[in-house]
Amino acid sequence: MKRYVLPLLAFLALAVFxxxxxxxxxREVPSPLIGRPAPxxxxxxxxxxxxxxxxxxxxxxxxxxxxxxxxxxxWCVSCRQEHxxxxxxxxxxxxxxxxxxxxxxxxxxxxxLAEHGNPYLLSAVDADGRVGIDYGVYGVPETYxxxxxxxxxxxxxxxxxxxxxxxxxxxxxRELRK
Amino acid sequence: xxxxxxxxxxxxxxxxxxxxxxxxxxxxxxDQAVEDxxxxxxxxxxxxxxQNESLAASRAPLAEDLRREIREQIRAGKTDPEIVxxxxxxxxxxxxxxxxxxPTTWLLWLGPFVLLAAGLATLVVQLRRRNVAAxxxxxxxxxxxxxxxxxxxxx
Lengths: 178, 155
Known about the structure:
By secondary structure, chain A is an alpha/beta fold. Chain A has five helices and seven strands, in the order αβββαβαβαββα. Chain A has a single domain (32-177), classed as Glutaredoxin (3-Layer(aba) Sandwich), CATH 3.40.30.10. Chain A has helices at residues 2-22, 77-92, 106-116, 130-134, 162-177, and strands at residues 43-44, 56-57, 67-72, 97-102, 122-126, 142-146, 152-157. In chain A, the strands form two sheets. Chain A has a five-stranded mixed sheet. A two-stranded antiparallel sheet of chain A has the order 1-2. The mean pLDDT of chain A is 89. The longest helix of chain B is centred in the last third of the chain and has 30 residues, at 106-135. Chain B has helices spanning 2-19, 32-42, 61-75, 80-91, 106-135, 141-150. Chain B folds into two domains: 32-95, Helicase, Ruva Protein, domain 3; 103-150. The termini of chain B are far apart.
């Protein structure tokens, strides 16, 4: 009887490791940017009409505010999935939402916003994806929560869900505003 | 007749082949030294989109962007560790196929050796125990005489 105990324990340990390991999502790469300053950039804004994008945007303009930076693109399929959540944030109106239009063709981006509704206060155009690299973007959509002093507090990889918004982001926002 | 036909076919083939102007392969990159270093760095980095491909092998758009970034940094005179650090600071240790040695990865690096040592120790203990058990069981006189009887006497 005793001789079976050790192999059984070894097997159980292996089973636990596999159960935990195999149930983790390999796409969720922990971002080293959490708790670090949001990388600075200056990019042209996506103008609503066809006018030349004269105005520019940088995270420094959001100093003193808790805000969301949402990386999106018109070619991104899962962005459609999260879009209702973004529109919901826009309707609430208490959490500024900035878009980063990542590696997109500007006319496509405008058409996309016209078709699905524009939840963003403004979108910055990252045409060649360099700012995306600075933010460690590897799969659109991604969303960053940035605090008053410009520190990244949370990163959502993949579509934002109502669940994540209610249970993670909004409580964190309340916490940060205290 | 058949031989003539075959000969004709070969001659025709040679004629056609002469018409093909083979040119020396043009390297895709303008600077081979930069490209060699790029491959050296990118082979040990993971493409984050496909995850099981290296950055050097992947054709994902992000991998192409990252290769462009590495190329530019090589031209700007950065060293290989500096470039790897640049990517790690954005994407985390996950981009490296060779994780660094630090407290959170001690188990990863040393675990196999610990398991190996444990296995060897178990083996040694088991073998010793078996030797002792074999040596420590001489036959009693009674058993010996029974064995002799079973084997057919004498001896």
